[in-house]
Amino acid sequence: MKALFWFSSKLALHMRYIVVVTGLANPSPIIQTFYMEESLVDHVKLDGVVTLVDAKHASQHLNEVKPDGVVNEAIEQIAYADRILLNKIDLVGEPELDALSYRLKRINEMARIKRTKFGVVDMEFVLGVGGFDVERVVSDITQLAAAESSAKEHSHDHDEHSHEDDHHHEHDHEHSHDKGETGHDHKHDHVHDPCVSSLSIECDGNLDLEKVDDWLGNLVEENADDLYRMKGVLSIEGVETQFIFQGVHALFDGMNGRPWRKDEKRINKIVFIGKDLDKEAIKKRFFECLVPAKQTVPTARG
Fold it and tell me: Where does the source fall among the domains of life (predicted)?
C-alpha cells in the first residue's frame, strides 16, 4: 500500500504537479506540513491524497495487529485518501473485491474508488482532485450523497428480487456487514480494526450560529488527534448563504458559499472520518444546535 501526494504549483503559467510517494506510513505529517509551512504555502498547494491498494494483499495489511493506541498505517492511508486505486484486481475474485471495497468505504466513505490493473488509470481521476479546497466541498458531498442513494436503490432492487422469506432476509442483511473477504464472520477482524470509520450526518433545518460554532470548536479541540478528515455544508439561521468547511485534525478552513435558492430545501450535510469517535454523542450534540421549527399559532375566532 502506498500514498501519493499531488501538489500543484501556484506560480507556473501552466499547471504543474509534484508527486510525493510514500511507503506504508502515516500521511498526516506530510499533509500538515503543506498546510503550516509558510515557505511552501506561498508556492504550492496540496491537491489531494491518492492511496494505492494492493487488492491481493490489502486484507493482510488491514488486519495487522498493532500495540494498544497505535493505529494501523494501512488504515490511516485509507482514512486520509481523496482517491483510492484498488489495483491488481485481476488477481482476486469479484466477491473478494466487493467485500474489500465495502471495507474501504466503511473506513472512508468520502474517497472515490477506482479498480485498476497494472496501475493504469485516467489522469483526470488523480489530477485536479481539489481534496483540500473548501470550494470543492459542496460537489464532493453531493457526489457522496448521489453514490449513497444509488447504493440504497441497488440494495432495494436486490431485496425485491430475493426469493427468501422476509424474516430470513432481514437477518442476513443485519449481519452482512460483518462478513470478511471470504464470507466468514468478520467479528474477528474487528479486533484488528482500531475503530477508524466514517460518520455522516444529514438533516434539514437551520442551525444556531453560536451553538454550532461552539460544537465544532469543542469537537475539533477534544478530538484533534483522532479526527482525520471532515467536510460539511451547513444552513445557518438568518444567513442566506451556505457555510462550507473542511479540516484535517485541528486544521480547519471555512467560508460562505453560494446563496440558498428560494425553492431549495436547506439541508445540512457533514462527513467525519476518525478513530474511536463517539458517534452517538456527536450526532446528539449536532442536533442540539438546530433551531426549533416555528410553530404556527392559530388565530382565535368569535
Answer: Eukaryota
pLDDT at 179: 36
Taking the complete model, does pTM exceed 0.85, yes or no?
no
pLDDT digits (tens, 9 = 90+) for 283-301: 999 999 999 977 555 555 4
CATH number of this structure's domain 2-130+170-176, picked from the four choices 3.40.50.300, 3.30.499.10, 3.40.50.1110, 3.40.50.1240? 3.40.50.300
- Annotate 181-210 with DSSP letters as a single string: TTSSBTHHHHHHS--EEEEEEEEES-B-HH
pLDDT tens string 95-126: 999 999 999 999 999 999 999 999 999 999 99
Query: How far is residue 26's CA from residue 71's CA, in Å, rounded to a whole number?
Result: 9
Q: 6 exposed, middle or buried (CB, 10 Å; 0-12, 13-18, 19+)?
A: buried
